[in-house]
Every structure is written in C-alpha cells, then in structure tokens.
Amino acid sequence: MPGESKTAIAPIVAKPAGMSCEAELFLGPDESTKVVSSGRVPFVSTGASQNVRLPITMPSSPGTLKGYIDIFAAGMRFLAYKTVEDIAVAPGLGSVSGLVRDFYTGNPISNVRVEVDGLVAYTTTNGRFAFILREGTYTITFAKTGYTTVTDVLWITAGREETLSTSMKGPEPPPPPPEHSPEDEALVALFMKTFYETHGHTFTCGESGEDEFNCVLDTASLWKTKSCQFGESTWGLPLYPYC
Asked: Torsion angle of alpha carbons 145, 149, 121, 100, nearest 10°?
C-alpha cells in the first residue's frame, strides 16, 4: 500500500569476509532513478551469502516499480543487484456502505444482489450493504427479481468511507379509487328515489318513517355501502352510497 513501511531481507554475497560494507535498496522505473530508498545500511561481509535487512517506505502513489540493491565498500559501489520481480504498490483501502429502498414506498429492500466489479454481496433485512475496496473507480449494480436493475459509478478514496443511497422501482402501487363527483351522487340519489317511489314507497334522506327509507352512509369504505331501513327491515345496498 502507498506510504506503508516494509523491510526487505536481501541475501547478499560480498567477499572477502570482514569488509565494512553498505547496502542500499531503492525502487524506481530504472536503475538511475530513485523514487524511494532505504538509504545505506551498514553491515560486515562474511564472504558467504548473508541476509541483510533493508527497511523502506513504499511510494505515496500506486504503481509498479523495479527494485535495485547497490553494495558499497569504502564509499565505492562494487556490487549491484536487481530484484527478480517488479514491485507492485497497490492502492490503499477505502469502503462504501449504503441503503437500498423501494422507489414507491420508501421501504428498505432485502436480498438485493449488489455487485462491484465481480464482488457480490446481498442486502440485509434492513436493506443495507457494505464493501471494503481499494482506491479507484468501480461500477456498482443493484438487481432483484421484480425490480428494475440500477447501475451507478462508485469512487473509492483510500482511508475514507463512502455512503450510497439507492432506490429501485418495483411493481407500481394500485391507483387510488376514483372519487365520486357531486354529479355522480345526484344521479344515484335520483335513481334510487325514482326506483323506490315507483314501488309505492317514499325515499328520503336522514329521516325515518313507517313508509320512508332512512339512509345511513358507511364511512369505513371508499366505495361506501348504503344501509337503508324500511320499517323493521334493513338492507345493504352496494350502490353509490349517496342520498
């Protein structure tokens, strides 16, 4: 990771034995460019292979560099090594967490498949998810059967936690029931008045009589049901409920 302290253990063979030597490890694009260096670390040669510890701080920016080791005696370089493999400095870690909600209801959605460049997680019962990622730019996708898939771009910065709130469109809620206009109410009242008066009864609203209907509105239903009383009998009329 950028800025991380490391220690390289280098097997070095310096002859003859007993020399006061110095070793320097450095990283760079080539042997003449030092991006970071361990500095010169003193050691005494044994005349055979010996491990020399070389502490170094990784570059502040991610990337791939070559590794070189120079060996000095009396201030003069007399040995030079190159690492077998290049040194990859990986980006630092950041994180993202978030919440997925239903577009229409605002309720959290559980078991949503959340994918970030091949990494997959599922939302909890509270609609939440989280990832730990290296610094960079990613594509994040939210998918669940019955919902429209959502894709977004995600930027991760090392050492920071990003938050993301997403909504997904599922089945649309049913439309509200139609409202009755005053004209509807008047038309139904006229129909019922005509119908019952044709059969020899008097139709009135809000009054009770031996030969009259007393009509009561059922306010608990959107399509209200009229309850009409005639004498000792009561009927529920599933028509428009207006007098």
From this structure: -100
Question: Which pLDDT belongs to residue 172?
Answer: 80
Largest pairwise CA distance in the chain: 132
pLDDT under 50 in the chain at which residues?
203-243
Please give the pLDDT value at position 63: 86
Round to whole Å and give the CA distance between 22 and 43.
6
Torsion of CA 99, 102, 105, 111, to 10 degrees: -80
The domain of 103 spans 93-168
Q: What does the block give as tokens for 153?
A: 């771009």
Beta carbons within 8 Å of 11's beta carbon, 6+ residues apart: 49, 50, 51
Find the length of the chain: 243
In the sheet that 150-156 helps form, which strands lie side by side, from edge to edge? 119-122, 113-116, 136-143, 150-156
The residue among 89, 105, 131 that closes a domain is 89
Q: How far is CA 33 from CA 5, 65, 81, 83, 133, in A?
A: 20, 10, 15, 15, 31
Given a contact cutoff of 8 angstroms between Cβ atoms, the answer to whether 104 and 170 are in contact is: yes
The CATH number of residue 23's host domain is: 2.60.40
Q: What is the pLDDT of residue 93?
A: 87
Helix/strand/coil (H, E, C) string of 17-28? CCCEEEEEEEEE
